Amino acid sequence: MSIKPLEFLDKVTTAAFALTIAFSFCGLFLVPSGQSILSNLLVASGVLGLLNYFIGGKKDVLFTDRRLIWVFIFYAVVILINRIIHGDQYGVMRSLFYVSVFSLLMPRKKILLSVGCIAILVGGIGLGLLSLWQYENGIVRVEGFTNAILFSQAALTLVILNWCLFIRARKICWMKIGSLVALSASLLALYLSQSRGVWLALGAVIGILIIYKSLYKPFKYTFVALLLVALAGGIYQTNTIVQGRMAEAVSDMKGIEGGTYYSSWGLRVVAWESAWLGFLESPLIGVGTDGFTVVKEQQISRGLVSPLVMDPALAHAHSQYMQNLIIRGVVGILALMIFLFYPMKLIVEKAGWGSPYTMIPLSFAISALSDVPFEHQNTLYLYALSLVFCWCAIEFNMEKKAS
């Protein structure tokens, strides 16, 4: 039986969207140049989606509530305007437009949600296996095919997503077991990446959830909190990696107090001071990428900051908040707050405060204190597409309840 051309177009479109979703969670951080491959997949899916919508007449797209997508478009437009004025990250702007078009045209088919669930399971296990392979081959601080901080953010995101799957699975035994295995593998990747900022984000996510749950079941979650504190203490006492990273942090802090800044946290302090002073010079719209290096050179010549600010490791402000302040000013920091916290508000409206989906933006908000996840395409893609997956799960769940 032959397939009509428009039916074939619909099937190809669905397959392209499914492949893109799958790669987002089980390919982006598992192969070299993952962000470039994902960009191409998003473009191909978007083009097919447009053809399927306008020529194929398939107008039943996934999202009826598109507020989340408008958040992506808004942040992209802010960066576009800033780029026109005095330079900004083209890759960031382009990536957000790709995700927005992809999300607007996603077919309303449950197979896409199922593919996403399986990809999250495979991706979590894949990150664990990749990190173990790298560690066994002499890479003490595993980094995937990017760097340790971005890799750790990916690991934390897949921890949360697999946790979402575990809760969603209910009586589906294989998914419960699979999500626990994938969650454990992602935790291993997070541990071996040795990123203290993302470790802090994990601790904050767990702490906030326990505090929220304890409002309803105080005795149970007080016991859980004490158990986790004891577990954390045991890990610290017996684990040389954790002890070493904490000792380095203490050493960095003592060095900063003594005026020595050539260390991981010392360089961050220099970068933050420079970013703040740069923001004060141009508070409304920042100095843009065109003025970033120039401002630092002027600060050095005036004796305002340490010459270490020109260290190659400080190609950015080492804090997303500070980065937005110096590059994009007040407009940029407000846009960042909307980009981070408005999706959380939307998820709370749909799924309640207790939903683990809210932990995706929260984890990025905390990690962004000491790094710039939204200046890198791979972590930006992961953030945006993770929210799209959560929004998709929420919409189908609401549809199921309504029926």
UniProtKB/TrEMBL annotation:
Q: Which InterPro entries match?
A: O-antigen_ligase-rel_domated (IPR007016), WaaL-like (IPR051533)
Q: Identify its membrane topology class.
A: Multi-pass membrane protein
In this chain the O-antigen ligase-related domain maps to 182-336
Name any GO cellular component annotation. Answer: membrane
Q: Does the keyword Transmembrane apply?
A: yes
What top-level branch of life does the organism fall under? Bacteria
Instruction: Name the predominant localization.
Output: membrane
Question: Which keywords label this protein?
Answer: Membrane, Transmembrane, Transmembrane helix
Is Transmembrane helix there in the keyword field?
yes
Where does it localize?
Answer: Membrane
User: Which chain regions cross the lipid bilayer?
Assistant: 12-31, 37-56, 68-85, 91-106, 111-133, 145-166, 173-192, 198-216, 223-242, 325-344, 356-374, 380-398
Q: Which Pfam families match?
A: Wzy_C (PF04932)
This protein's name? Polymerase
What species does this protein belong to? Aeromonas lusitana
